[in-house]
């Protein structure tokens, strides 16, 4: 019998369900003030084991933030695209073990997901492991349906980092969003700006949560390195928020999820969308 976690989904076309009116699109001429750097010229593996800080902002403030950052960052381009759509499928146990570990504040916790970009046919299976010191480590493999050995490796990694079998996991959440990525090639900092977020149920795609107007800025940097954009956001009274796309989506689309511990983040999102700040 086919396991639910092995069902093949058309991930690339799944990005199409982003509502066009919610897509934060900017005129390409806006980016002429940035130097463009190709993803193929950057060693991306060096960004995986970094400290991660996140901020919430209204989408309407993205252009202003980018405008002030143009002299300090480069824009990452991949396959000719500066703005891309990403599709994520998360996996969890039926009792939401990974979700509960996160919202209950467990220091060592795991996430398992499949990731695909709208500009590529390549799918990746990723295992994220958060260590007690706050660092996030990612194990990533290209999904090759013709290579059974790759699935054996994934099975071993899930067992090592999550302590369970891959067969115990089921699809738990779909997430689609648009992304712009900034790079500081001097310090090795990478900044993802995600907008047009859509969360939906893998079982019933009609069950959705769309925080229209919300953007998430995710900063990855070395522990002691300064961040121009983080300082800029703090100067504008925008405070960092320990937000997780996975926990946010599950808290809204899964009726079994315990949301009490995540309510402060939800209130912060509501305040950001209502008043344009996240104190």
Question: Would you mind describing this structure in some detail?
Answer:
- The chain is an alpha+beta fold.
- Helix content is 23%, strand content 31%.
- β6 and β7 (136-142) form a beta hairpin.
- The chain is globular, with a radius of gyration of 18 Å.
Largest sheet: 11 strands, mixed
- Please tell me how large the radius of gyration is: 18 Å
Number of strands: 11
Strand content: 25-35%
* SSE pattern: HEEHEEHEEEHEEEEHHH
Helix content: 10-25%
Number of helices: 7
Low-confidence stretches: 1-13, 17-23
Distance between the termini: 50 Å
Summing up helix and strand content along with how strands pair, one would put the structural category as alpha+beta
Shape: globular
Secondary structure elements and pairings:
Layout: H1 11-14, E1 35-38, E2 51-58, H2 62-69, E3 74-77, E4 84-92, H3 97-103, E5 109-117, E6 123-130, E7 136-142, H4 148-162, E8 170-184, E9 189-200, E10 208-209, E11 214-221, H5 228-235, H6 245-253, H7 263-275
Parallel strand pairs: 1-3
Antiparallel strand pairs: 2-11, 3-8, 4-5, 4-8, 5-6, 6-7, 8-9, 9-10, 9-11
